[in-house]
Design goal:
4-stranded antiparallel beta sheet; OB fold (Dihydrolipoamide Acetyltransferase, E2P); mainly beta
């Protein structure tokens, strides 16, 4: 899986080469990195920024597999940039999913306590 991350106005292309319970291998540019089990929680924290890799500006997708703990918006509601949309619990951590821009919620595709996989559609915006 290839991702584009923007950190402090600099864009990075990241490729997940291998991922299992004990180790994750990624490639950033031409450099490869490996993370062991102890570092995986740090990776989960970093993944909270991954909603920025949405396939469409009209979709908000799950950055990681997890459980939808709390939904803060309703269908038809107007949301503002940086507004908290929902909480996605993964690896004993709560990840806040926030909006990237002002928009209106067209459809909510998940329910509280629902399990989702990485890249599942959470919301569709107008």
């Amino acid at each position: 899986m290839k991702l584009k991350l923007k950190i402090k106005d600099k864009e990075y292309e990241v490729e997940i080469l291998e991922e299992d319970a004990d180790q994750t291998k990624i490639k950033v540019g031409e450099k490869e990195f490996s993370f062991g089990r102890e570092e995986k929680e740090k990776i989960a924290v970093a993944q909270t920024i991954l909603p920025k890799r949405n396939f469409s500006k009209k979709e908000i997708r799950a950055p990681v597999a997890g459980t939808v703990s709390k939904i803060f918006v309703k269908e038809g509601e107007f949301i503002k940039k940086n507004q908290k949309i929902l909480i996605l619990s993964a690896m004993k951590m709560e990840n806040e999913i926030i909006s990237e821009n002002d928009s209106r919620v067209k459809e909510i595709e998940v329910k509280e306590n629902q399990q989702v996989y990485a890249d599942d559609i959470l919301l569709i915006l107008e």
